[in-house]
Specification:
The complex is a heterotrimer of chains A (546), B (215) and C (110).
Chain A lengths: L2 H6 L10 H5 L4 H29 L10 H20 L2 H15 L7 H23 L13 H5 L4 H28 L12 H33 L12 H35 L6 H14 L15 H29 L8 H24 L1 H7 L3 H31 L5 H27 L14 H31 L43 H4 L9
Helix pairs in contact in A: 3-4, 3-5, 3-6, 3-17, 5-8, 5-9, 5-15, 6-8, 8-9, 9-10, 9-11, 10-12, 10-13, 10-15, 11-12, 12-13, 13-15, 13-16, 15-16, 16-17
Chain B lengths: L1 H4 L9 H36 L1 H8 L4 H26 L3 H31 L15 H37 L9 H25 L6
Helix pairs in contact in B: 2-3, 2-6, 2-7, 3-6, 4-5, 4-7, 5-6, 6-7
Chain C lengths: L8 H21 L6 H23 L7 H26 L19
Helix pairs in contact in C: 1-2
The chains are: A mainly alpha (546), B mainly alpha (215), C mainly alpha (110).
């Protein structure tokens, strides 16, 4: 297929031009791009804060920055990465692009709300960046009271306003996904024929809806306390700082499942495609997504074992935290069983998926260590915790995101990325990641606290290893930025289904027309029917462009 | 049916699907609102458990009768809102406008009474902050009570204001004959929102105003 | 799905008057000392009844499909999780001295 054929055919990217056609679009695919550009910017801003931290941590003394500045760096790194990259990334980019396509719909249920959610995201980001530019916040991304509500002299209000606003972006996205998945599936697309990516995003949307409002009100209360001196978490009035932590973690724990569930959805798609097999135990994996979302709401107290929470509550939260690991582990077992006797290929998306399985397992396992009360007393607030959550969020969620971006890049752009460079980048990322974060498990275990920029000299070797790893990781992240942009102009032109995958999104052209499908598809098969040819499966009244 | 078809957005198969999606969407939004207010209710229950005497004493400083009247006002407004939806469902434009207007007026009455209450609290030095004054042994937890009083009723009032804005928009649209038995989704959805805001107050009233009356 | 059957005005009137009566009842009971637990239980119960009337009739949930019921219930159920988990901690904290509630601080001057 030649280049001129693509340029002549109308699709969602060339149907109209100009900045207004993008800023006022209601096409879910264009909104996905708006988000892609935004979260990429925030990713590199958060990465910049991390770079400064890791450079400081090369030496035991505090020589690059002062303590107060370091406090601001880790706070802004956390706030930016959590709220402006990890939480939106897969749902707002890949979810927005793919949810309607995977279910055979023309758009999400509420396209204008979708655009509004992006503007809200940008507004919240603007407030937060303003706070950073004005001097930043030093409370930690966890905003613990009474430091955040009374004693900190930094721009807390500006930052919590930014995060509060951005929360509504999440809520609207979740609302849109839930209604779309319930009401707009194509004829024949029953619940148990849905791709696991959809199940994952449905479960994620439950968390968006029921969790995000709680952090919203919590941040409002902190803001009110700062501005009007209302005494809600003020100990001198009899207020309870642990109560803040209950409210904060009620959302922020499920938030980590917001970050990982979509990545798991991506991994299911990738494992199936690159093993040429149905996902083993499809129904179990689907229910596991829901189970993670629901049980994930029952475990928040495991962040507060040493905060003053009662032993009784801590024991219950510990037990429930063990329980929530079960559906996650089930998924890992099922992916592995899918690989068994599959016809495996090692394209870049698959490398990310395989990396995810290994690194997520390590991250999840260390989560169980932390859920054990006795161990947590020893490693709470040390680098052990930092390593644990980076294994999940970076080794898991970010790799799932990159795997998904690569997999669906041909669909989104009509271009193939350069495979050699992509595999190289995946490898560099894997090596860099492990070198950065594995030493941190050891550091935490031998006693290095988190959020400190000075440490005893005997910790230096491991810190230097970690910083070296971070520089390799940085190279690994910059590579896709370069070659993906390169591919937009010079990459090979993609057909409708370069991976020979199953899934409705592959039954239409790359890039797709604005309405996604020429005719509404009629579904007669479940997902991942890799034992059949794509052409046999979907009864489109007119064949899609190939 | 072409008048209704004109309201169908392009990405829906039919008006039925669009209506179902809108209805579900509003309920999902209301679930988020339950959790939003719920965070404050959770905090309130905790502090009330610890500081029952101070909370009861502070509650007695609220004007019970204004609170009760306001509860009745909101219940009336829910009634008129339900009748407004009913009017739209039965294709009666004039009653629709009338009931929407009544609901709006009742909402404004509620806010007026609330404003008066806030002003009274200000005069009685019961606004948290440096001017707060209360019986010494209970003062600090009482200040927490009033923090919640203002935060919770304030957030409720913000939602009322938004609701009144929505109602105003509906009245303007109804006057231009936009709604009919076949299409009145915005009226229904605004009704759901308004009833929800009423429900929040149904819980706020006993928790804030009736706490210590028997002590 | 919304109420395809149009709910009759009679039902609305009945619900309306019941709500007013319940408001009067809850206000009156507040002045009678039935023992702390009973007063609280009564107030909450009446509030829940009022809320249910509004939800089932004014908001048409009684006439709606299962999906509406699920989402209507989900928010309240999740709120119970938040309140339940937090109160479990609060209620089982050891008290600082015998005879006092385990409040975080006694009234300290600001």
């Amino acid at each position: 297929m030649n280049v001129s054929a693509i340029e002549r055919r109308e699709h969602y990217l060339n149907v109209n031009y100009g900045i207004r056609s993008w800023l006022f679009t209601t096409d879910h695919k264009r909104i996905a791009w708006l988000y892609l550009l935004s979260v990429t910017v925030f990713f590199f801003i958060g990465g910049l804060f991390a770079t400064l931290m890791r450079v400081e941590l090369m030496t035991p003394q505090g020589d690059l920055v002062q303590a107060e500045t370091y406090n601001k760096l880790f706070t802004m790194h956390g706030v930016t990465m959590v709220f402006f990259f990890l939480i939106p990334s897969i749902p707002a980019v890949l979810g927005n692009f793919l949810v309607p396509m995977m279910i055979g719909a023309r758009d999400l249920a509420f396209p204008r709300l979708n655009l509004a959610s992006w503007y809200i995201f940008i507004l919240g980001g603007a407030f937060t960046l303003m706070a950073a530019a004005a001097g930043g916040v030093d409370t930690g991304w966890t905003f613990y009271t009474p430091y955040s509500s009374i004693y900190s002299n930094t721009h807390v209000v500006l930052t919590v306003v930014g995060v509060f606003i951005t929360g509504f972006s999440s809520i609207l996205t979740g609302l849109n996904f839930i209604v779309t998945i319930h009401k707009m599936r194509a004829p024949g697309m029953t619940w148990f024929r849905l791709p696991l990516f959809i199940w994952a995003h449905y479960a994620t949307s439950i968390i968006f809806i029921l969790g995000t409002p709680v952090i919203a009100i919590t941040l409002v209360l902190v803001g009110l306390e700062r501005i009007f001196r209302l005494g809600i978490f003020d100990p001198s009035l009899g207020g309870d700082p642990v109560l803040f932590q209950h409210l904060f973690w009620f959302y922020s724990h499920p938030a980590v499942y917001i970050m990982i569930l979509p990545a798991m959805g991506v991994v299911s798609e990738l494992i199936a495609c690159f093993s040429r097999k149905r996902i083993f135990g499809y129904g179990v994996v689907a229910f596991a997504s829901l189970a993670i979302a629901v049980i994930g709401f029952l475990v928040w107290g495991h962040h507060m074992f040493v905060a003053g929470q009662s032993v009784h509550a801590s024991m219950i939260f510990s037990l429930l935290s063990f329980l929530v690991a079960v559906p996650s582990a089930i998924k890992v077992f099922n992916w592995t069983a899918t690989l068994y006797k599959g016809s495996i290929s090692y394209d870049a998306p698959m490398l990310y998926a395989l990396g995810f399985i290994g690194l997520f397992t390590i991250g999840g396992l260390t989560g169980l260590f932390l859920a054990t009360l006795g161990i947590d007393v020893h490693v709470h607030d040390t680098y052990f915790v930092v390593a644990h959550f980076h294994y999940i969020m970076v080794g898991g969620a970010v790799m799932g995101y990159l795997g998904g971006i690569h997999f669906w890049w041909p669909k989104m752009t009509g271009r193939i990325y350069p495979e050699i460079w992509a595999r190289l980048a995946a490898l560099i990322i894997f090596i860099g990641f492990n070198l950065t974060f594995f030493p941190q498990f050891v550091l935490g275990y031998i006693g290095m606290p988190r959020r400190y920029h000075v440490y005893p000299p005997e910790f230096q070797v491991l810190n230097v290893m970690s910083t070296a790893g971070a520089s390799i990781l940085a190279v690994g992240y910059l590579l896709p930025l370069v070659y993906l942009i390169w591919s937009l102009r010079y990459g090979a032109v993609a057909g409708a289904n370069p991976w020979r995958a199953r899934g409705l999104e592959w039954q239409t052209a790359s890039p797709p027309p604005t309405e996604n499908f020429d005719r509404t598809p009629v579904v007669t098969e479940g997902a991942y029917a890799y034992e059949k040819e794509p052409e046999e499966i979907y009864a489109l009244r007119k064949p899609a462009h190939v | 049916m072409s008048k209704v078809e004109a309201f169908r957005q392009h990405h829906f198969e039919d008006v039925e699907q669009q209506h179902e999606a809108s209805w579900l969407g509003m309920w999902v939004f209301l679930a988020t609102e339950v959790m939003f207010f719920g965070g404050m209710f959770a905090c309130y229950f905790v502090y009330r458990h610890w500081y029952l005497q101070a909370f009861a004493s502070a509650s007695n400083h609220l004007n019970l009768w204004l609170g009760a009247i306001n509860t009745a006002v909101l219940i009336c407004s829910s009634f008129t809102m339900a009748l407004a939806v009913h009017s739209a469902e039965t294709n009666r434009r004039k009653p629709l406008i009338t009931y929407l207007l009544l609901t709006t007026v009742l909402g404004l009455v509620f806010l007026g009474i609330k404003l008066f209450e806030y002003y009274s609290k200000f005069e009685e030095h019961l606004v948290p902050g440096s001017s707060f004054r209360f019986e010494e042994s209970l003062a600090r937890p009482a200040e927490i009570f009033f923090s919640f009083y203002f935060a919770m009723t304030g957030m409720h009032a913000v939602h009322m204001i938004v609701g009144i804005g929505l109602l105003t928009a509906l009245i303007l649209q109804a006057r231009r004959s936009r709604f009919s038995a076949a299409y009145h989704t915005p009226v229904e959805l605004t009704g759901l929102y308004w009833h929800f805001v009423d429900i929040v107050w149904i819980f706020l009233f006993p928790l804030l105003y009736l706490l210590g009356r028997h002590v | 799905m919304n109420a395809k059957p149009v709910v009759s005005v009679t039902i609305y009137v009945l619900v309306f008057f019941t709500l007013l009566v319940l408001t009067a009842v809850t206000t009156a009971i507040a002045f009678v000392d039935l023992g702390g637990g009973i007063n609280n239980a009564a107030a909450i119960t009446i509030a829940v009844c009022k809320a249910l009337l509004v939800i089932l009739y004014f908001m048409h949930v009684r006439y709606s499909d299962k999906l509406t019921w699920v989402f209507a219930a989900a928010g309240f159920f999740w709120l119970l999780i938040l309140i339940g988990g937090t109160m479990d901690d609060v209620l089982t904290r050891p008290s600082l001295s015998p005879g006092t509630a385990s409040a975080p601080t006694q009234a300290n001057p600001r």
